[in-house]
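We append the chain.
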Amino acid sequence: MQRKLSNVNAWTVSAVIIMALLFLPNLTIVSGIFSPSNDNWAHMKEFVLGSFIKTSLILIGATGFLTIAIGLSLAWLIAQYQFPLRNFLKWALVLPLSIPPFIGAYTYHGIFNYTGVIQTTLRDGFGKDLNPAYFDIMNIPGAVFIYTLFLYPYVYSITRIFLSQQSASLIESARMLGKGPVNIFFQVVIPISRVAIIGGSSLVVLEVLNDYGVVKYYGIQTFTTGIFQSWFGLGDIETSIKLAASLMGFVIFILMAEKLLRGRRQYNYSTTKVRPLPLIRLKGWKAFMATGYGLLILSLGFLIPVVQLIDWTILTFGTIPTEEFLIYVKNSVTVAGISATVIIIFALIVGNFSRLVHGKAAKLLPKLTILGYSIPGAVIAVAVVTAFIGLDGFLAPLYRLLGVDHTLVLSVSLAMLISAYIIRFFAIGYNSIESGYDKIGTDFRDASRLLGVGLTKTFFRIDVPMLKGAIVSGFILVFIDVLKEIPLTLILRPFNFDTLSTKAFQYASDEKIMEASQASLVIVGISALAIVVFYKFLEKEPE
């Protein structure tokens, strides 16, 4: 009994330390609210804070509406109807997630600008020299266009899986009552999919608020650009902290609104005989329209940008030295691999703690650690750098004792960047591991314990092998997100440390969009391959 308690205590202590490390840095942002104001903050609060809020509301409102419209309509088509290329589109429509929005932003700008393929074709092929202003997408509507194309899969994937697993009796009952397809869609499908729609669209909203690449490249002023400008432009970290606190408050407001939108309305099955929706075969022009719609969205969100990136890569191949390019690949894979590995290890420890220790605290504390995913990267960057500077100050006597002649050690190291990745993306790995724990249950663990095997040995011999699928899927998802991340990396990377994403962003910001294509294409290729593997691995829906 004493040995059992000591094992439980060891897991508890480890989990509590991990959760504290994940959560405490964000308290620096909260403390920033109560710090004295300076002239820069007074100026921003009076003249630009309202603009930040207005622009952010426009971006998330328009993007949220359009991603719901596209994602829900595609999800309903795939879940309800059979038409040519349906099986291909079912998984291919997720591929736009492999293209970071900032890559899509500069790619479409290159396509639409004066020397791009569209205007060049109109001038040379058709003799049409139209006003270039007609093709300008470097504005708020253009940003909404980019966000919609590359973020709609959040709504599509969540809603499609939900709809494909719903009881067919709901739809069949509506048909028996004389409801047509349009009425069924608006009166039945949308209400029962409410939770899935809001869940997917909330991820879209958080991604838009977190983004820095698109708004910076298109010259749109948001909270994130304000944080960068006050920090790097004005050298004022206090104002950055206050802006970060304002953005955190804005995010909390959005999350509370999401809870209110979800409401308490629930749709439960009245029978235990739940079966998926039977597919209705479309014929003629209806089948053509369904296939055409899916291919149009896939082309805009994936095929066209990838073809353009390939074309630019061929034109500029060799302009970036191979050794230099390989360094960017190595840096990207290294930080993504280390971050994903640490996150999965931490998630396994915290998840096992939640299973071993009963009580409300053991269920609540892990939920607090996953809040980092709802906090924009720029906010986490401010929190982490503030915490690490304070830690360096605390360890300064030790540095002097070791003969180090400067006080900034950890705050200029790769450890700070990786720590920020872990805080930002821990929720992705933890959710995957938690779902894995839920699936395997506790029966095998309890049987192992009855045979006298210790908790730690049981964990490695029983739990880890059974969690292999959750570990692989969680690792892939975290790896992709770290590979594409921009705000955290730009702020926290050590001197002269570049990744594929930061280098692509720098080239695009310097209007070297063709040179940016090489790094971008590698990011898209790795992410697309990982998404296909992940999707095929998890997707086992009834046909």
